Amino acid sequence: MRYVPHGVYIPFEADDMLLLKGEDSLEFYFGTKNIDKKNVRAFMYDYITKNIVMSPYYNNLKTNYIDKMNKGDRLILISYRDGFTMPLIKNWQILNDVNNYQNMNLFVMMMSKVTKDSLDIAQQSLKPLGSVQVQDAGYSIFVYEKQ
Known about the structure:
Layout: H1 14-18, H2 23-30, H3 40-49, H4 55-64, E1 74-80, H5 82-90, H6 98-103, H7 106-125, E2 127-134, E3 139-145
Antiparallel strand pairs: 1-3, 2-3
Helix pairs in contact: 2-4, 4-7, 5-7
């Protein structure tokens, strides 16, 4: 259960999507429900190695949420598992090597991609107000505002 006072909760559960089980989250991010552990690496290869935001995710987040925000509204992104996502995001180019890509833990790679895409989309459309890293808990909070 989520309590979002005076706000809109985006019904996207990255953990469900990353575990390839939440159909709504799969479709929200990938644009299809036909993703499984056998085809996800091939499906994501170009998006990851060429550093392209997943277009269905971009369209869903931008059109259904960011574009509907009013001036002064804020988008708050919470990134869990920073211990392994942020180092990969900062060194994204290592995934250009096919061996690194194939050997990277799938969950780590996908969680990092979702976090990276979310930050990239927010950065394009909104003004960053700041971020806080809670290192002991392993997560970060990013706040953006519609101008």
